[in-house]
Amino acid sequence: MTGYPTYYESFDYKQMLQDYPLGDEFTSRFSSMNRTELKALQNERFLNVVKRAWEIPFYQRIWRNAGVKPEDIKSLDDITKLPLISKTDIMDSVEKFPPIGDFHGLDDIPAENRPPIVFHTTSGTTGTPQPLIFGPKSREIQSLLVARSYRFMGLKPATTVQSCYGHGMINGGHYIREAVTHYTNALFLSAGTGLETRSVQQVNLMKTFGTNVLVGFVDYIKRLSDVAREEGLTPGEDIKIDMIIGHLGMESRENIAKAWGGPELFDWYGVGDTGTIAAEGPDHEGMHVWEDAHYLEVLDADTNTPVPDGEIGNMVVTCLYKDDVYPIIRFNTCDLTEVIPTENKMSLPFKRIKGFMGRSDNMVKLRGINIYPQGVGPMLDEDAAFLGEFICKAVRDENGRDEMIIMVEVNIDASQRPQLQAEYERLLKRKIGIAVQVELVSEGELTPLTQVDVRQKPIRLIDNRFSE
User: Fold this and answer.
1) What is the pLDDT of residues 272-289, one digit of tens each?
2) What per-residue confidence (pLDDT) applies to 357?
3) What is the dotted CATH code of the domain comprising 363-464?
4) Domain map of the chain by residue range?
5) Which residues form the AMP-dependent ligase C-terminal domain (predicted)?
6) Do residues 288 and 279 make contact, with C-beta atoms less than 8 angstroms apart?
């Protein structure tokens, strides 16, 4: 006989809604809160998360190896005594304790008492996918924070939202569907990527069901505007999009808005492990950090020391709500941003950031797929013609579309290269998940670019997308 709780029985759902408000209740609660009151709230939640983390072998091991004892952490002010963690630590846990590691805290819960979990993985672009494990409480708060973001931006009641986020084992599409269906009253079209719902069908869905909000990665959303025109549909007339909510980063908002007939664009930021961290508001002056749910540090990428507001550093995140499954404390996203130093004009106590400004470890997000240049070489190792030297070039064409060109040194004659080039492009599309271009060159030709002869770590990425 089993006695484990059902999903919503495993936590106090009404208390969660009270603790993490959205809509008008959110505005009312936080517009009257000052930074001192916010810090007190953060401190209380931080200590709860740390208490839970000390029960988990993963944190016990890492913190004790760093010389930290439970009594060392008395308040949020002591957070710098704790070491940073990263995806590397999570994957090390998975390797030592397969298949899902020991970072989540499920192992100390008897099977008959274990709560339901939500399980996803990362895309696994460069090898073994990273497990993503969510308890019911933290999963619902993550979803709620997405909906808080959308409603804060101005999502209208009973609108029609079409999502271009992917499904399968990855988290994105499922997470957004839960957010919209649980915490808004929108009609939600879970179209997914172009592989899941053909682009032609996507634009016809918009026309048929009156989609007026598009959410997803903006490079694909931009492509859909071209498909609409190819189908004889005029964005802004036949398909009237009011809002586009995507991951804009350094993208050209003017081009995207023009392509869709002038909708309002909104940016937001989060990673799979942490959920939504910050979102742009109707003020369009950066992204507001949901500091009731996250404690965000911006640290120098080399020294891991705080940088002044207005300077670029790595985003290091502590989730203040994850005191059930997989606590996240000082997680180094390796994503770069800067804190906006001016006052929050929306009368909120929260910091604002500029949003995603690149990766400190050279990860490239291309059309919604994370590409790690260092991992491209191993994808080609199985072919005897590959000499081991390569470099990735991210470029932006005249239409604003991002492309990846992978230059590869090979040991075959020029007459044989067209066939091998096609084989490599097929191989990389299968392993990476999107099409890339391949250029084959002879041995030594890439040395001036990779600087393999003078650098301990060769250059594997040249990102020309944002060059003047």
Assistant:
1) 999 999 999 999 999 999
2) 79
3) 3.30.300.30
4) 1-360, 363-464
5) 368-465
6) yes
